[in-house]
């Protein structure tokens, strides 16, 4: 829709390219190329490092192509049966958690965006205050214990049902991007807040739903702290805990081979530790990357076009 | 709004400073308010409940900062010591070093990390061709997912004074070779650049979403008027980002004493310690490793109060000058 | 084109309806999640329960990330049978410190916690009511009682100032006393026709030769790294670091140096403010300034430190360094090139006898604690005692009989080489069992054939023997098990954070940039102002108490 619909109008402009426009295009192209290089090269590095001899990586001999190719890291990661349980759990927590997040956040954000809603300022303060002040880990732990949330998978979705940061962003979007005339027209037809929100506001806010949804999704995907502190049963642990356990084997040796009562990590262990840390990134990130293109289409120009004109 | 509002921009939804809000049927009494606004309260109810239970209930723990942690007496049973732990922190010989380092790191990150995503979003938005645009977006957002351990590992490899690609590359331009990881003066730049590199693409997503809500007719109209691309960016794209920018800026200012713990800790070495010891690493070394619960709670509270003060100040300023605020 | 249609469709009410359906679905999913939770919440708590009858026991074990699941170890079933319990294991491999502080502060502990120093003396001081005092339970634990009586220092290590015993140590006979060994590339010496150095000056000359000539004979005289050491952290010193050179001046350190405290003839001091440390720093700077030290030495991480020494193929990269064994440090392929060496003399004909770091590696503290709230205390004690059984201890350390260890007869054991050809003995041990993290008592009288890596460590320790013997455990060793009050621990921690912030920064500065002569006095004055003497006094007080 974007470029297709824009092109006819752009064409005359491009045809009569001024020197300024040309300069702009060149500057743009250079910038994009630099940005791409700066982001793609490190990713490429992670990829080749995950299949290279870790000694060569650490001594700076791996640059463009894998050196001493081996899939040892991946074999080790994928052979770990806990990975698959972790994947299953993480997908469950992410899907249910993100759904709950949207259900809690979007209506609240919309309600807070209504300028005629007098209590919205104290309420915003009520929410924003919690971004800063918290009781700390121990009271939280005791609370979860009383609510029977310890070792319960709901601990991954319920306490984090609302992220105030996302609430604020969503509110700002509703406040600034929804034409007030729409609401006025709807109210004249006797439409209430709830119905207006569901039938008008939401369909017009795909971009922000996509962004907030993505934020929540990634937040759940990357959450290891909840599992670390509040869950003991390994069968309920998310992928990140499993991966962190594998990943930190690297740091376990950083204290020295003889440290912590240990003695001698051994070459195998060293290789395990070094190669796996790159592989873990690929294994844990791939699924999130696959989600992105589906969300991306909501960021393109003109998502709202048409309906606004109503 | 601080941004100049011209003919074109005025048509962008969201840039009009004050919209005449609906004042009709405004309830003057509580019952009147509930009669007209009960649906809004219903929509807010889950959020309020979750926040009240999971954020406000545990807040009694804050008093630990003013009490001696005494396990046998229970969490709130320890002796009341008032500001003892705060004084201890203020009188610590490291206090000013910690504050200076923390502010230097977080403020630089805040400023650079705030501007970069905006520029990136504006740039990406200019790319012609859907595939190229999507590819660029995906590529820039990828680094966000690399774990901190690996980012620091990569810094080690890339910045190594003997074999690293960055020092070798810079020396081509006559920049003297130095050990970027071991130089206190380089710590902040290295940290900030790697932060921006990692999170810039991710943070630009929100701006891309805001850009996507611009009415395409505006562009067409601007083209017809013969506006150049820089002019369009300045008068259409940028104003559309302002509301989001203001909100994010306020939120960022609430992080003025936050400097990410794990990455700084992993980047620390004896050579850069004088620039890299920050509040969070100090709390870790003294609190977590040594079970100094009261002391670390007190430092945490100090941090929070400063951050919150900055947030409130910024919020007031934003309310005054940009007519946008959190509350 | 499809896109155009879609964007047009947003105008129709149908699209709005589609969104509502989606929202409704989301609500439904979230709601059913709540219902589901009602069913699954709390039906089984705890990890896998291994077989066996008897009482149920929950055990948390802090193990190495490489170590396989507890239920996969055959000795675990034996242990449960011997103690007549069935254990549900909670296995922790990462972020234990964070997990622990919440768990303890909330008073939520399992029946047993196992792991080397998993519960530290500082934890015991803060949370002592959480743990069972075992001093009156020794009748129920004959193995433990025997160990505390027979092993020198074990009882002192386990006993708190008030006489209580909350945590039990482990004893591993046969372990080399020191972790750090000193290596030089013998082949490089031979290639260049040089003698093994015995003093700092001789070492310096050798390192210069390594740097200037093509010691590894690959045609490039510039690729040799004469001198390298393990990354020095910001919280203190450890193994394989230049603190090893303090032994040249007769200064007796423990555990690689730590925060600098040491005892000499019954007197506590801190080497960070000692003239002898100044001499070491001066030597290090001299070597660094001459380009003899790896230029990344301060900033590299442990991976890089190890990887660099692996060289490439048969070409070694590092001349002089410290490590656990030659194979561990330089890789199996290059290890034969290296020789372990005796501590160096600071100068020829010096009076001070040489010493070496005293690491207490065979007697290690706090391997197991019992919860005071356990409802199965007797069962817990049976499990603890079963760990310290002779056969069980050997299996806890080296792995199962049959696959990892061959039991020849009652008192004779032979540790087997790795069964999967790819692994090395050390990794094999860590993947198979709890190894050094477990509670155990490897007895003095048994006949044990060590695995190759340990045999190598013992053999390569020989040059150090004389220096280690110069250290009088009663007069020159700061015991790692001083039991301090929470208040004193807190004072120590506060002062230490300031002291180490200064000393570690200065270490890096002195070594790389020099300025030691001019800067030393100001540095020491600053240390004094940071509470160094207060800390030394505290250590002295507790040291004197421990000596009775």
What keyword list fits this structure?
heterotrimer; A: about 300 residues; mainly alpha; about 70% helix; flat; C: about 550 residues; disordered N terminus
Overall shape of chain C: it is globular
Number of strands of chain A: 0
Query: N-to-C SSE series of chain A?
Result: HHHHHHHHHHHHHHH
Give the strand order of the largest sheet of chain C, numbering strands 1, 2, ... along the chain: 2-1-3-11-4-14
Range of strand content of chain C = 5-15%
Model description:
The complex is a heterotrimer of chains A (310), B (327) and C (548). By secondary structure, chain A is mostly helical. Helix content of chain A is 68%, strand content 0%. Chain A has helices spanning 2-15, 19-49, 54-58, 72-79, 82-113, 120-129, 137-146, 164-177, 180-188, 193-204, 206-222, 225-230, 239-247, 249-252, 266-296. In chain A, helix 5 (82-113) packs across helix 8 (164-177), helix 5 packs across helix 13 and helix 11 packs antiparallel against helix 15. The model of chain A is unreliable at 1-15, 252-264 and 303-310 (pLDDT under 50). Chain B is mainly α and 327 residues long. Chain B has one domain (85-321): Orthogonal Bundle (MetI-like fold). Helix content of chain B is 65%, strand content 0%. Chain B is built from 13 helices and no strands. Chain B has helices at 30-56, 84-91, 95-126, 130-141, 148-159, 165-172, 184-212, 216-224, 229-253, 261-267, 273-276, 279-288, 293-321. In chain B, helix 3 (95-126) runs antiparallel to helix 9 and helix 7 (184-212) crosses helix 9 (229-253). The model of chain B is unreliable at 1-27 (pLDDT under 50). Chain C is built from 20 helices and 15 strands. Chain C has helices spanning 2-9, 13-40, 74-83, 96-105, 121-126, 142-150, 154-158, 186-192, 200-212, 275-289, 302-309, 326-330, 377-387, 390-398, 425-432, 452-460, 465-469, 486-513, 516-529, 532-546, and strands at residues 55-62, 85-92, 112-114, 167-172, 181-185, 225-227, 261-264, 267-270, 318-323, 338-340, 363-370, 405-409, 412-415, 441-442, 447-449. A six-stranded mixed sheet of chain C has the order 2-1-3-11-4-14. A four-stranded mixed sheet of chain C has the order 6-9-5-10. In chain C, helix 3 packs across helix 13 (377-387), helix 18 packs antiparallel against helix 19 (516-529) and helix 18 (486-513) crosses helix 20. The N and C termini of chain C lie far apart (90 Å). Residues 1-48 of chain C have low confidence and may be disordered. Chains A and B meet through helix 1, helix 2, helix 5, helix 6 and helix 7 of A and helix 1, helix 3, helix 4, helix 5 and helix 7 of B.
């Amino acid at each position: 829709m974007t470029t297709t619909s824009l092109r006819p109008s752009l064409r005359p402009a491009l045809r009569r390219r001024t020197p300024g426009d040309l300069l702009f295009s060149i500057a743009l192209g250079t910038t994009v190329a630099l940005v791409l290089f700066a982001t793609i090269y490190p990713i490429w590095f992670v990829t080749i490092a995950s299949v290279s001899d870790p000694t060569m990586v650490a001594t700076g001999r791996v640059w463009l192509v894998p050196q001493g190719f081996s899939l040892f890291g991946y074999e080790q990661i994928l052979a770990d049966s806990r990975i698959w349980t972790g994947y299953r759990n993480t997908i469950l927590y992410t899907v249910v958690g993100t759904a709950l997040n949207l259900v809690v956040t979007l209506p609240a954000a919309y309600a807070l965006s209504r300028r005629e809603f007098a209590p919205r300022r104290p309420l915003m303060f009520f929410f924003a205050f919690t971004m800063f002040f918290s009781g700390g880990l121990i009271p939280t732990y005791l609370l979860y214990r009383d609510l029977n949330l310890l070792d319960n998978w709901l601990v991954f979705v319920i306490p984090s049902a609302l992220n105030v940061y996302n609430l604020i962003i969503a509110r700002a979007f509703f406040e600034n991007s929804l034409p007030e005339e729409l609401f006025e027209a709807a109210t004249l037809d006797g439409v209430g807040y709830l119905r207006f929100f569901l039938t008008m506001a939401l369909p017009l806010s795909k971009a922000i739903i996509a962004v907030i949804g993505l934020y929540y999704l990634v937040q759940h995907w990357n959450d290891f702290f909840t599992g670390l502190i509040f869950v003991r049963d390994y069968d309920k642990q998310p992928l990140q805990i499993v991966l962190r356990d594998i990943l930190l084997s690297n740091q376990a040796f950083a204290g020295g081979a003889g440290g912590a009562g240990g003695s001698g990590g051994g070459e195998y262990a060293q290789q395990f530790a070094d190669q796996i840390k790159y592989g873990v990134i690929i294994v844990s990130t791939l699924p999130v990357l696959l989600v992105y293109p589906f969300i991306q289409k909501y960021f393109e120009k003109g998502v709202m076009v048409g309906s606004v004109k109503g | 709004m601080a941004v100049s509002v011209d003919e074109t921009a005025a048509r962008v939804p969201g840039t009009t400073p004050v919209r005449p809000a609906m004042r009709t049927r405004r309830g003057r009494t509580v019952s009147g308010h509930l009669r007209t606004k009960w649906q809004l309260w219903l929509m807010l109810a889950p959020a309020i409940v979750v926040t009240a239970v999971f954020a406000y209930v545990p807040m009694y723990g804050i008093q630990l900062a003013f009490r001696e942690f005494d396990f046998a007496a229970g969490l709130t049973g320890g002796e009341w010591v008032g500001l003892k732990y705060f004084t201890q922190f203020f009188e610590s010989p490291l206090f000013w070093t910690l504050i200076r380092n923390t502010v230097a790191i977080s403020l630089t990150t805040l400023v650079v990390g705030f501007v970069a995503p905006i520029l990136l979003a504006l740039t990406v938005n200019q790319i012609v061709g859907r595939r190229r645009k999507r590819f660029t977006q995906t590529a820039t957002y990828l680094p966000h997912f690399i774990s901190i351990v690996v980012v620091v590992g990569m810094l080690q490899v890339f910045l190594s004074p003997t074999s690293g690609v960055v020092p070798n590359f810079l020396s081509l331009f006559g920049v003297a070779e130095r050990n970027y990881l071991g130089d206190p003066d380089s710590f902040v730049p290295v940290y900030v650049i790697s932060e921006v590199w990692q999170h810039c693409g991710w943070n630009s997503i929100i701006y891309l979403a805001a850009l996507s809500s611009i009415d395409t007719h505006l562009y067409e109209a601007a083209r017809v008027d013969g506006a150049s691309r820089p002019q369009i960016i300045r008068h259409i794209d940028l104003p559309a980002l302002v509301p989001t920018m203001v909100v994010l800026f306020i939120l960022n200012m609430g992080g003025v004493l936050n400097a990410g713990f794990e990455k700084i800790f992993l980047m620390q070495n004896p050579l850069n310690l004088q620039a890299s010891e920050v509040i969070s690493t100090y709390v870790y070394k003294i609190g977590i490793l040594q079970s100094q619960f009261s002391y670390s709670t007190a430092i945490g509270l100090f941090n929070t109060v400063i951050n919150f003060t900055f947030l409130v100040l910024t919020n007031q300023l934003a309310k005054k000058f940009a007519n946008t605020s959190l509350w | 084109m499809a896109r155009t249609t879609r964007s047009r469709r947003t105008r129709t009410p149908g699209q709005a309806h589609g969104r509502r359906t989606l929202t409704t679905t989301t609500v439904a999913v979230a709601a059913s999640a709540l219902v589901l939770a009602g069913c699954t919440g709390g039906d089984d708590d705890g990890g896998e329960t291994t077989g066996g009858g008897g009482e149920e026991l929950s055990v948390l074990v802090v193990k190495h990330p490489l170590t396989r699941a507890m239920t996969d170890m055959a000795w675990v079933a034996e242990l449960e049978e011997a103690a007549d319990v069935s254990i549900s294991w909670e296995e922790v491999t990462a972020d234990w410190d964070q997990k622990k502080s919440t768990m303890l502060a909330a008073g939520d502990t399992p029946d047993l916690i196992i792991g080397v120093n998993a519960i530290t003396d500082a934890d015991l001081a803060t949370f002592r009511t959480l743990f069972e005092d075992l001093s009156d339970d020794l009748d129920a634990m004959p193995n433990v009682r025997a160990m505390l009586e027979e092993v020198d220092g074990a009882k002192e290590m386990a006993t708190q100032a008030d006489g209580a015993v909350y945590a039990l140590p482990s004893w591993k006979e046969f372990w080399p006393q020191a972790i750090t060994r000193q290596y030089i590339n013998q082949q490089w010496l031979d290639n260049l026709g040089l003698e093994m150095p015995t003093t700092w000056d001789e070492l310096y000359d050798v390192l210069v030769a390594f740097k200037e000539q093509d010691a590894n004979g690959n045609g490039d005289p510039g690729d040799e790294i004469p001198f390298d050491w393990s990354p020095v952290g910001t919280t203190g010193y450890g193994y394989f670091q230049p603190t090893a050179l303090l032994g040249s001046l007769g200064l007796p350190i423990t555990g690689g140096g730590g925060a600098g405290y040491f005892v000499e003839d019954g007197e506590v001091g801190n080497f960070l403010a000692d003239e002898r440390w100044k001499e070491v720093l001066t030597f290090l700077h001299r070597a660094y300034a001459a380009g003899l030290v790896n230029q990344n030495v301060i900033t590299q991480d442990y991976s890089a430190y190890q990887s660099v020494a692996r060289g490439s193929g048969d070409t070694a990269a590092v001349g002089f360094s410290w490590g656990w064994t030659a194979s561990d440090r330089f890789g199996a392929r290059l290890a034969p090139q290296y020789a372990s060496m005796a501590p160096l003399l600071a100068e020829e004909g010096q009076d001070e006898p040489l010493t070496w770091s005293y690491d207490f590696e065979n007697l290690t503290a706090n391997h197991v604690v019992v919860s005071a709230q356990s409802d199965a205390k007797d069962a817990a004690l049976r499990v603890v005692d079963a760990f310290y059984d002779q056969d069980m201890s050997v299996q806890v350390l080296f792995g199962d009989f049959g696959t990892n260890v061959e039991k020849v007869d009652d008192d004779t054991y032979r540790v087997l080489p790795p069964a999967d050809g790819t692994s090395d003995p050390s990794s094999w041990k860590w993947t198979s069992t709890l190894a050094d993290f477990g509670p155990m008592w490897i007895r003095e009288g048994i006949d044990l054939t060590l695995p190759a890596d340990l045999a190598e460590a013992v053999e390569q320790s020989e040059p150090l023997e004389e220096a280690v013997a110069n250290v009088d455990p009663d007069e020159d060793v700061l015991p790692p098990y001083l039991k301090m009050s929470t208040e004193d621990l807190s004072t120590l921690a506060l002062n230490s954070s300031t002291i180490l912030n200064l000393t570690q920064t200065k270490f890096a500065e002195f070594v790389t940039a020099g300025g030691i002569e001019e800067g030393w006095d100001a540095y020491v004055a600053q240390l004094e102002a940071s509470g160094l003497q207060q800390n030394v006094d505290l250590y002295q007080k507790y040291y004197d108490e421990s000596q009775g």
